[in-house]
Amino acid sequence: MIKVGVVGGTGYTGVELLRLLAQHPDVELKAITSRGDAGVPVANMFPSLRRRVDLCFVDPQSADLGSCDVVFFATPNGIAMQQAAELVAAGVKVIDLAADFRISDIAEWEKWYGMKHACPELVAEAVYGLPEVNREAIKKARVIANPGCYPTAVQLGFLPLVEAGVIELDNLVADAKSGVSGAGRKAETHILFSESADNFQAYGVAGHRHLPEIRQGLSRFANAPVGLTFVPHLTPMIRGIHATLYGRIKKDVDLQALFEERFAGEAFVDVMPKGSHPSTRSVRSANMCRIAVHRPQGGDVVVVLSVIDNLVKGAAGQAVQNMNILFGLDETAGLGQIPLMP
Amino acid sequence: MIKVGVVGGTGYTGVELLRLLAQHPDVELKAITSRGDAGVPVANMFPSLRRRVDLCFVDPQSADLGSCDVVFFATPNGIAMQQAAELVAAGVKVIDLAADFRISDIAEWEKWYGMKHACPELVAEAVYGLPEVNREAIKKARVIANPGCYPTAVQLGFLPLVEAGVIELDNLVADAKSGVSGAGRKAETHILFSESADNFQAYGVAGHRHLPEIRQGLSRFANAPVGLTFVPHLTPMIRGIHATLYGRIKKDVDLQALFEERFAGEAFVDVMPKGSHPSTRSVRSANMCRIAVHRPQGGDVVVVLSVIDNLVKGAAGQAVQNMNILFGLDETAGLGQIPLMP
Amino acid sequence: MIKVGVVGGTGYTGVELLRLLAQHPDVELKAITSRGDAGVPVANMFPSLRRRVDLCFVDPQSADLGSCDVVFFATPNGIAMQQAAELVAAGVKVIDLAADFRISDIAEWEKWYGMKHACPELVAEAVYGLPEVNREAIKKARVIANPGCYPTAVQLGFLPLVEAGVIELDNLVADAKSGVSGAGRKAETHILFSESADNFQAYGVAGHRHLPEIRQGLSRFANAPVGLTFVPHLTPMIRGIHATLYGRIKKDVDLQALFEERFAGEAFVDVMPKGSHPSTRSVRSANMCRIAVHRPQGGDVVVVLSVIDNLVKGAAGQAVQNMNILFGLDETAGLGQIPLMP
Amino acid sequence: MIKVGVVGGTGYTGVELLRLLAQHPDVELKAITSRGDAGVPVANMFPSLRRRVDLCFVDPQSADLGSCDVVFFATPNGIAMQQAAELVAAGVKVIDLAADFRISDIAEWEKWYGMKHACPELVAEAVYGLPEVNREAIKKARVIANPGCYPTAVQLGFLPLVEAGVIELDNLVADAKSGVSGAGRKAETHILFSESADNFQAYGVAGHRHLPEIRQGLSRFANAPVGLTFVPHLTPMIRGIHATLYGRIKKDVDLQALFEERFAGEAFVDVMPKGSHPSTRSVRSANMCRIAVHRPQGGDVVVVLSVIDNLVKGAAGQAVQNMNILFGLDETAGLGQIPLMP
C-alpha cells in the first residue's frame, strides 16, 4: 500500500482527491492537513465522506508527512514551493496540484503569480504531469507539476495538430468555458449562487495565469513559439470544462485519423466519432477527456471540442493518474468511475 | 458471475442501472432491451458509457432473457406484469423498478395506475424490496417490487417512529421535494430546462401514485391504518429527494437513540448527528439514505429529514442492493461509490 | 415627486429597491448610502442599473436623509433601530426592510436577534406592513416594519383559514422553500454556486427568526395563541419562495370561496383556480402572491400553496406598496412589472 | 393606439412579446392565434399573464388580422412567408420573428431551411430589422425581418470593426453561447432539465442556420465577402447570449473610441468601460446589448464580448423596437424594463 499525505484538504481539489483516494485499492491515507481546521473530522466538513474517511484534519506542522511515500499539495499557489524541497530530500514524492512547478521560466512565473519563487531549483527538475505527453519522464520524477484544468483541456485538444504541424502557429484561439467549481471553495461574492446562476460571463481576457502554461506546452509540442488568444468564461454549472479551439489549417490531412492515432491506447482520452459534440456531463466525475475534431464547411479552419471534468482529469484524477505512473501501478487503478449521467 | 438482463435501458433508471452494473464485480451484463432503439449501441445514446458498456440495445423479443439469472425491469408501469410470469417460470429472478408489484391491494393498484393488472398472482408472492425492513424475505423472493423513490425516503424516515409507536398515526405529513430526473427521460414540456430551472412547484396535491404505496408501508410498520398527507414538489436540481416528515409525539423517547438503534448495522442508512440538516448532495450518486431527527423547540412535533439520490437508493442502487441480497453476495458489492461533492 | 433615500443599497434587497424605484413614476431618488462603497457609482457595482441610476453611494453620515420624504432601510438587522428615531423626529417616514420593528415583544425580539433593542418606543408605534391586513394603519404610520419574506408567504396563505376559524390552531405546519437570494449577498461558503446548485437542504429546524414573526401574525389573526412548526429549506434557484401549509380542518366551509372572498380586490394576491399548483416563476420579478387551496382526497387536512418572489412581494416590492399607501398614491404605482417567463 | 395581432403565441418568443406588449403604452392587443390551443385563455397557459392579458388564443383562420395595424409572427420558420403577402396587401405591417425574410439569396435560404420559399418577392422588399444599421429603411418598411438571436449579438459586436475596416475579413471567429430558451418551447429530449442542467455542449459546428444570416450582414457592413467560423453552444441558463468574437487587427485604431462613437446615441447598445466583462444577467429581461472590446496583451487580436437577452434584444424586444420605429413612436416606448438582478 502506498502511504499518502494530502496537504490542504478543505478545497474542492482536496475533497475530490479524498473521494478518489478513498476508493483506490493501493492507497493508505495517512494524513490530511489543514491549518484552519486541525482536529475537525474530515467527514464533518464533507458529509459525503462519512463512513469512508475516518481521519481528522491535522496541523501541517504535526503531520508526519516525511513518512509518506507521496504527498499531494491541494493548496493555494505558493505553498508547495516552500515545503517540497524538504520532502523530496526525505525521499517523498511530491505531486503539486497548484501552479508552483508548472512554468519553467521563473521570471514569467513570478510575473503572473505575483510572488518570488521560493524554490527555482525544483522547478528545473519537476516534470509537467501530462501523461499523454510526458509519461516516461513522470515515471522517474521526484516532483510532478500537475497541470491546470484549462491547460489540460486545451493542450490535449491542440496536441495532435501542433505536433504534426497541421496548423498555423501564430494565431491560435482557445475559447474555454468552466464550471464554477474551478474558482474554488472560497467565500467570494462573484461565485455566489445568486451571482453565478442563470449567468454567463468571460473573465481575465486581458490575461489569465493559465495562458503562459498553455503557451509553454504548445511551444514544446511545436518546438517553436506559438501565438495564442485564450479567453476563459464562467458557465453556470458545477463541474466541467469545455474548450473550443480554433486553428488555421496549413497542411491537408485526415484530421479524424490524426487524432485517433495520436491517442490510440490512451485510457483517458477518448476521440469521439466524426461529427460529435462532446458534452461536459459525458465526463462528469470521471478521469476522461473527450475530444471531437471538426472542419466546418470543408474550409481551412479546424475546430476542436475538448471536454474534461475540471476536478478530475483537470486536477485530482490526473494527479492520481500521475501517482499510478510514478509507482508503477496500473495507470487506471482507482480511476474506474463511470461518468454520472444525468 | 451473475448473468443480468435489463429490460428498458433508455430511461434514467435504466442508464443508472447500467452505470452500477458495469462496475459490479460479480455481474455479467447479457442483454439490454429497447423496443425503439434496437441495434443502437448503448454508448451512442449515452456517451458516458463509452468504453464501459459495449452492448447494443436488442429487441425485447429477440433478447434471450430466459438464460439470465436475474432480469431488471426499468420500464414504464404495466410492462413487467406482462413478462414476469414467464421469466419466473423459467427460474429467472425478476426485479421490477416500476410499480407493478408494489401494491398488494389489486383494486387499489388499478385505481391509481388506471389499468387492469395482468398478473395479480405474482403480486401476492412479490416481496417489497426495502431491505431495511424485508431483508429475510428478499433472500427467498422470486419477484422483487423495488420501492418508489419517494416511498423509500419517506418510509425510512418514518420507520423508527411508527414501529415504536412514538407518534400519532392519524395525521402524518410528508412534504417531499424531488429533482427533475424523477420525472423520467420523457419529451414533455413541463420538465424542459426553461420550465423547470429557477422554479419551484408542487404537483399532485390531490393524489400521487406514491401515496398508496407509502400508506401501505407505514400501515404495515404500525399494524394499523395511518392517515397521511403527501405533497410532492419539483425542485430545480437533477438528482435527489428531500423528504421533510412531520408527526405528533405521543410517547416521550430519546429520538436520536431510537433512530441510531433501528439503523445500527445498516450499510445504506446513515443517521446523522443531532441537529444535522442532511443535504441531497451528500448522497448524490451513492446508494445511501441520510436521516436527521429533530424536535423543534422541545415541543410535541417530531421533524425528520430524509435524503436519497432518487436514481440510486430511490431506484437503481436499491435494485442492485436487492440483487446482492437475493444472490447471497455482500450487500454492498458494486455499491461503493462515494457521493459526488461538489 | 416623493423624495426617497435608501440606506444600505449594496445587498439584494437594496438593488431590487433601486430597480423598482427607478421605474416608479412618482419617486425621486435622492440618496443611496453605503458605508463601505461611498463614492462608487451604483451602476459600477450593479451594471444592470447602467443608464438608469446615476447616483453614487454616499456615506451614511454625509447623506442628507433628513430632507427625504421617506427613507428605506435595506440594512442588516440592528441598523434601523439606531437611526429611525432621529428621522421620525424630522418628519421623515421610515420603512425598515429588516426585522428591527417587526416583533412587539421586545424580550422575544432580543432573544431571537441576539442584541439589545435600541429603540423599543418606536417598536410600540410601528405598523407591521402587511397591507392585506393592516392597510388602514399603514396610511397613518410613521414607521413601517416591512414583513420578512417567509412571513409574507406564510401569513397570506394561512390568513383566511385562521381569521375564519376554519382550522385547529395547535398544530399548524409551514414547510417553506426559498431561493438562494433570500440568504443575501454575503460572501459565505454555504451559498456558493458549487454548494447550493444541484442541492436541496433544510436549515434552522431548531428555530428560525421568522418563526416568532409568523406566530405573532397568526396569533393576531386568531386572537389566540397558535402552535406552529416552521421548517425553511434552501432550493437551488435565485428567486422565489414556495410555502406549503398544512392545517387540520375543524369547520366545513367552501375553502375556494373563502380564499376568493378574503382577497377580492387585492391587487397583489391572486387566488388561483381550484386544483392549481402555483409556480414560483409565475411571480418572478413581480409584486404578487399567488395562492391555491387544496383538500386532498376530501379529508380533514387543508393544504395551501403560497408563492412569492422573495425580493419583491417578500421585500422591496412590498416596501414600495407600503410607500404607495403611506403617501396616498395608487397602491400599484410603479409595481406593474409582469412576471418574467421563462 | 396601435392595433396589434400576434400569430403563434404559445412559444417563448410569443409569450415574451405578450409580456412586452401588455406593458406598452401605445398598444392594443387585438388577437393572439394558436392552431392547437384556440379557445384557451392565454393566462391559463402562462399564469404569469393572469390579470394582464385577458384574451383567449384564437384560430388563425378566424382571427381578424386584417384589421390590425401590425402583425407579429412568432411562429416556426415557413409560416409567415405563406401569410404575409395577404396582410401586406391589406395594408397591415408585418414583423416576422422567424427567418422567412432574413436571407436575400433565396437559393441560400432554401438550402439552409430545407424548404421551398413561398414568397420570394416579399423577401426582396423586406427590411432586415437591425435598427442600429437599418433605422431609416425600417421606418418605411412593409415587412420587417426581425434578426435572429445569435445574429443580433454577433453583428452588433463586429459592426464597428468591420465598417471601419479595422480587421482582416477572411478569418473571423464567433464563439457564441446561448441559454436554453433559445431552443424554444418544444418537447424534445435534449433540452430537458436533466439533460441541459450542469452541462455544456457545442452544437451545429458543421453549420448552423444563423451562419448565412450573420455572414450576409457582415458582408454588407464590409461591402465585401467575409470568412466566418461560427460555433454555437448551449449553456445551462434560461436566458442570455454571450458572443465572444475574435478578429485580427490590420489597422491600428483606438478600439474603445471606435465602439463608443459608433453606438453613441443608441438607446439599446451600451459600450462598457475599457476592461469590462459584460454578464448576460446584466441584460436579462431587458432590450439591451452590452459590449466590451479588448486587445489582449496588446497583440494583434481584438476580442469583443457582446451580450443580449436572446428573448428580448434577440427577439421580442427588438421586434417591439422595430414596431416603435415603424409607427413613429419613441423608440424606447414600452421597453423601459430594467434588467433583473439577481
From TrEMBL, chains A, B, C, D:
CDD domains: AGPR_1_C (cd23934), AGPR_1_N (cd17895). PROSITE patterns: ARGC. Gene3D superfamilies: Dihydrodipicolinate Reductase, domain 2, NAD(P)-binding Rossmann-like Domain. Pfam families: Semialdhyde_dh, Semialdhyde_dhC_1. It is an enzyme of class 1 (oxidoreductase). Keywords: Amino-acid biosynthesis, Arginine biosynthesis, Cytoplasm, NADP, Oxidoreductase. PANTHER family: N-ACETYL-GAMMA-GLUTAMYL-PHOSPHATE REDUCTASE, CHLOROPLASTIC-RELATED, N-ACETYL-GAMMA-GLUTAMYL-PHOSPHATE REDUCTASE, CHLOROPLASTIC-RELATED-RELATED. Belongs to the NAGSA dehydrogenase family. Type 1 subfamily. This is N-acetyl-gamma-glutamyl-phosphate reductase. The lineage of its organism: Bacteria, Pseudomonadati, Pseudomonadota, Betaproteobacteria, Rhodocyclales. The gene is argC.
